[in-house]
Amino acid sequence: MIMTRYIQINPADNVAVALCPLTKGMIIELNGMRVELKEDIATGHKIALKDFAQGEMVIKYGFPISHTVAEVKKGCLLDDKRMKTNLSGLDTYTYTPKFEEQTFTNEERTFKGYLRPNGEAGIRNEIWIIPTVGCVNGVANQLAEELRKETECKGIDSIIAFPHNYGCSQLGDDHENTRKILRDMVLHPNAGAVLVVGLGCENNQPDAFREFVGEYDPTRVRFLVSQRVDDEIEEGMKLLREMYAIAKEDKRRDVPLSKLRIGLKCGGSDGLSGITANPLLGVFSDYIVAQGGATILTEVPEMFGAETLLMNRCRDEEIFNLTVRMINDFKNYFIRNDQPIYENPSPGNKAGGISTLEEKSLGCTQKSGSSIVEDVLEYGERVTKNGLNLLSAPGNDLVASTALAAAGCHVVLFTTGRGTPFGTFVPTVKVSTNTALYNQKRSWIDFNAGSLVEGESMESLSRRFIDYIIEVASGRLTLNEEKGYREIAIFKHGVTL
Predict the structure, then answer these.
(1) Count of C-beta atoms within a 10 Å radius of residue 441
(2) Phi and psi (nearest 5°) for 199?
(3) pLDDT score of 331 more than 90
(4) What is the model's pLDDT at position 1?
(5) Whole-angstrom distance, CA of residue 166 vs CA of residue 185
(6) Residue 230 CA neighbour count, 13 Å, CB half
(7) For the residues 463-492, what does the mean pLDDT come to?
(8) pLDDT of residue 3
(9) Looking at residue 346, what is its pLDDT?
(10) Are 430 and 420 in contact (CB under 8 A)?
(11) Beta-bridge partner residues of 497
(12) Please, is 204 exposed, middle or buried when counting C-beta atoms within 10 Å of its C-beta (0-12, 13-18, 19+)?
């Protein structure tokens, strides 16, 4: 049951948010103020708490999120048709550090993981077949299927092929992006063994890619060039059997939470995202950082309008400058392609109550909590620093989630108010912003944050969430894993030959 039917998030806000459907004529009371609703208000949508003149600023989360495009009476709906973004073009920034005192301490908890010879830890022990080029996707899929039939996955967590469209006919950054993501997958600690399957004539030449991967364990990472053998399935199975025999001997053991790398992502946001699920991830991020682990926030276009909040939490001016470059590089990417920088939010976001990019970004960035920003990663770069990291990647759900996993995340936490079934190549935990979605899509949603508006405290909810994620890290399957929804998507923005 909804304990509170509406909320004013910040005392400075001149809007309230409906936490359930509200009907015309209803009286809401906030801080001694009585407001009669002039029209029906759907869940997640904004209610004007004052009479707005045209061009007046709309305040939510304590910050301007738009200006009105016409007069709006007190008690009326404020949506994308009645308000417009304040954002435009490139901005200049000044480093004004503002750090918050952290409340979590290191509890010295552990999870059951797989310690790797290089000192990293995995939360899964899987065998992966990775094509260097889309031409051998069918070979990779057949090898995975043959090994699953032969072994029934006994002694390991899963056997998976990861087909993709690229590896050839790409130029410049696109070619390098493909190589980086595939390299990062080869080196990911959730894989107990990896077979890289090449064709032989592709741009992503297998021999050159082998060198690009760098240092790796040759007993657990093997390469097959299909054009150089008579029967690629037979040769591939020989290699896979050898690696399977090694990987199946790996056992879970106690691993400190400081080894965890957690990705922070949202998609299909609604008006409750910045009230329930995203703040929950923010609390969890601060907790993991306090344990000595790392969290990574991405979706750069969905930082626009809230980027200064992240910039002012940068460890020092060097990290601040990297953050500024990340933001402006992404804005220039839009400009180079003759696209509007602020073509957001999506139709689904608007239907859920998000009207402008500032509003979306102020909700999205809450996933980062309040910890200090320790590093900024380029697309395809792997995390090296504990603490909160920022990663350059677009907002697209599968592209961004793949980038997070490639950066070294063991699991991606994905908040949603609309719902989605997908998963990337690491466990992808769906956290619903509202209970209705959780109840409707129990086959998609792993954890419900909607209880925050039904009376549960953040302390209680975050503790349940911490315990749940430790269970996932210790082997509990997420719903995308149970259903076999495992995919990758690589960022592309250039010419295809």
Answers:
(1) 17
(2) -95, -60
(3) yes
(4) 45
(5) 15
(6) 0
(7) 98
(8) 63
(9) 85
(10) yes
(11) none
(12) buried
Q: 335-352 pLDDT, tens per residue?
A: 998 888 887 788 888 999
Token pair for 232: 């690629």
pLDDT one-digit tens code per residue, 149-161: 999 999 999 999 9
- Are the C-beta atoms of residues 258 and 291 closer than 8 Å to each other? yes
Residue type, 375: D
Q: Which of 204, 211, 205 is nearest to 167 (CA)?
A: 204
- Quote the tokens at residue 59: 């305040």
Task: Output the CA torsion 261→191→381→358 (10° steps).
Answer: -50
User: Which two three-digit tokens encode residue 296?
Assistant: 């990574």
Tokens of 64: 């301007």
